[in-house]
Amino acid sequence: GQQLNQSPQSMFIQEGEDVSMNCTSSSIFNTWLWYKQDPGEGPVLLIALYKAGELTSNGRLTAQFGITRKDSFLNISASIPSDVGIYFCAGPSSGNTGKLIFGQGTTLQVKP
Amino acid sequence: KAGVTQTPRYLIKTRGQQVTLSCSPISGHRSVSWYQQTPGQGLQFLFEYFSETQRNKGNFPGRFSGRQFSNSRSEMNVSTLELGDSALYLCASSLMSSPYNEQFFGPGTRLTVL
To answer: What are the pLDDT digits (tens) for A32-60?
Structure first.
């Protein structure tokens, strides 16, 4: 079945540093979504990507949809303590409406 | 616009009991999907409802069921609870049932089964 593999699994960085994480799959995805989840809360949609090669920014966040449609990356510039959380990539399951496939998540910790 | 709301936020039940969780989607959204999140399995899709019809179902036993009302609000029910059902249950809404639509999540219901 379709799977999304995220790396790294966790990151511990200093405040002010830039962060990069990525998501890969052996299958093609037509949409890539990036979510952030704080402890005890639901995932919050950060960025949605719809076209191969698309590069989209949302404040300090930048995400790109890979040309092969099998990968995506998320960059966070100048990290701040509130960036702490778990970041998930997700994509729609082929032929199964309403179902998102999620990566395992990247846990980000920021040291002030 | 109000976001997705879920009630209750926390529940404690014992094995064998049943539980009903509620989800109110964003106004105007007609598709509601449910997910189970556990540390070991991550986010797993339960089912999706659109216009009061279940459109898609994940690989969960029949103890897990749901429904959607005419106002798009949705409920999910778990009968004969097992310890392994302890999890964060998330619902997400989107404008319509489409593989391209973003899903917006509620805060979740934390279910603990003792």
So the answer is: 999 999 988 999 999 999 999 999 999 99
Sequence-distant (6+) residues with CB within 8 A of A23 are A4, A5, A6, A32, A71, A72, A73, A74, A89, A103
**Confidence at B97, pLDDT banded by 50, 70, 90:** low
| Cβ–Cβ gap B55/A97 under 8 Å | yes
- Candidates A80, A89, A68, A74; CA nearest to A109 is A80
Give the type of residue at B54: Q
Residue ranges of chain A whose CB lies within 8 Å of a chain B CB:
30-31, 33, 35, 40-45, 48, 50, 88, 90, 92-94, 96-100, 102, 104-105
The alpha carbon of residue A65 is apart from the nearest alpha carbon of chain B, in Å, by 14
What is the layout of strands, in order, in the sheet containing B74-78?
A: B5-7, B19-24, B74-78, B64-68
What pLDDT does residue A61 have?
Answer: 97
User: pLDDT-derived band of residue B99, with 50, 70 and 90 as boundaries?
Assistant: low
